[in-house]
Fold these 3 entries.
Entry 1:
Amino acid sequence: MSSESTRTCIIYHPDYLKHETGTHPERKERLLSIISHLKGTGILDKLELIKPESATIEEIQYVHSRDYIDKARKYSELEIHLDPDTVLSRDSYDVALLAAGGAITAVDAVLATFDSSFALVRPPGHHAMPERGMGFCIFNNIAIAARHAQKLGKKRVLIVDWDVHHGNGTQEAFYDDPSVLYFSTHQYPHYPGTGWFDEVGIGEGEGYNINVPLPAGTDDSGFIAAFEEILVPAAREFRPDIVLVSAGFDACNKDGLAYMRMSVEGFSILASIVKSIAKESCGGKVVAVLEGGYDLKLLARSVDAVLDVFMGNEPEKKSYDVSPHVKARLEEVKKIQRKFWHFEK
């Protein structure tokens, strides 16, 4: 690995553990596993740890309606599930405000001092719609962070979503908005059922929504090819002022909630590609916000791998063979997106 030191911080608060979900896949042990692993490897000692403040209601309203925010608060007080997948306990509303605040703090950190930041938050956010929470998500942390960055003068925001599930909430938040380029790789068909090729945005936002729906069983080669062949050229044209990552790690082989075959090393390569985009377009400013990832050991190792790249260690380049099925999907994406972006033929 080559090394070029960069300033990286993590955003974390022990109150994230107060979102009690029992034996639900999205449980507090996810963060406990990450923190324990980072302590064990010594990487935690090399990072600045920042405690976030809770997002204000006004900041949540960058994305969500006041009626929905009030519903989330009331359901949390009564410990009523938002939907069959989204468990709420008495502290969940307050923790969700703190999770959104963590994403905001991560943006503030890179705009003030750091090159990169990673918000280790829960609950996750990318399924949360403007009027509805779902898929373990209460408020859309990454979307709120994007709007916050724009409030601070970063006009063009790139959101890269490598969670195995399509970020339907993030897509909806910016579907008609040309100031945010949303790029998602995800298993398809799979939950939540959105994210097909032809979902490209509407109105002025047409073309600023790039979905790469990958077949079950896709390994590192397919994700890396999607990033290199589709994300990189589109991002180069878009020229973002900041890069945000919905960093879910449930595409890992044997994660349990999906059927992809990504390796921990594969995520380090994706992180390296994203970092190179940020370096070229916006002084290396990149913010990651935790989404999914449910195998505790794989999750912790994957977060460690991404942080290692953010801190300046580049993964070894390897050659990969992309399966014909995946190649066909990538070509279909390019065929549709060529109306908006330039790709090599």
Entry 2:
Amino acid sequence: MAKPEDDTLIHARLRTPKSAALAGIVFSLLMFTIFGLLRRSIPADPLEPGAWLAADTKMIALALNLVPFAGVAFLWFIGVLRDRLGQQEDRFFATVFFGSALLFLAMLFAAAAVIGAVMLLASTAEPDELMRSAIFRYARAAAYIVNNVYATKMAAVFMISTSTVVIYTGIAPRWIAFIGHLLALVLLIGSYYIGWSFAILPVWVFLISVYILMDNLRRR
């Protein structure tokens, strides 16, 4: 049977590193890179004819390969937030916060998988033939809706719940929480109409991660 002092030692060994907040910064930088590569290569209009399939798609392939790494960094960032909350974590907000984060990642991965499937089809068929097919039009529209509607809405819910937790627990300055609420409203209302709205979450994650990292280093 483990002694209490053994449990304390184990907990000390598993303590979150002070530099773990770098995960949020890494996530933000990866998302900026992914967003930039895709915006340069794929037109924003979901009903465009698909001429980009006949061009060089190496940039798109690179962006899609970066998505899993961004997902892992985002999961690590969630762990950093939960570790910072500690005993202050509320079950209700924790459920909304954690659930919306996982749903956001699921939607992000789904949209990347759809675009990847289109790329795979393009490599085995003639681009003109694929552009005229109903499969391409459906996949292109589905990826656009999943990413710009559902993923961004989950990102907004994540930002609202996290910002609310910040206000009540004080794990970060309130002005960061107020900025989070404001940006989340932009996502909820205008994500379908604003092409750059998908970059809002990485901007906010970058902001709160920089604060947590500086605070951790200051405490050390």
Entry 3:
Amino acid sequence: MAEEIWDEAIGHVLRAGTAGFSVGARVNQIGAPAFGMFVRAQPRTDDREAVYGLLYDIHIDDDPLVRQLVLADAVSEETIRDQRYHRIVPLEMSVLAIGYRHISGEVRYTLPPRPPLSLDPIYLCGPDEVREVASRFNYFRLVLNAAQVPGEQLLASALLNAADTLPEDERYPFLVQAGREAASLLGGDLTRLDYLLKLISPA
């Protein structure tokens, strides 16, 4: 059976804090990760917690060769392929922590007691894991109050990603329920609430 995209690490922890972490990868690993996806920092030992988060930024750094190539009159496809697939072009992803899996197996929707360690592998959550983590909305406040992220857009993208893992007849009720939870948190800021609801409403 072919390996699913969530069975293979998309990168490794570069640096981390309690509120989130950064992931390093190669540019040719960017095919699967996307804004608003649920990810998991998996510890290498059983005495630490797996940390769940939402991917909110993908940043591609340059290097001296890229600086030269962007100024060239014409760049061949072969050169671009070589740059993307053979050279080590740095790619960095930023993740907002939204909870963790306690060593008892329970998912807890608070900041983790400790951050992941450098070089811990990062995985995309598979559909079953996304449904489990997204089934409770306790992480909404963490996302909406995080100063470093576009809160409404990140939460909306995460909810739409989670809805896509559900049977078709369960998607709309899930989003309605999520909208009600958001309304309870943003009742004093109708501009933000209206924007979020528009982002998750069916086209």
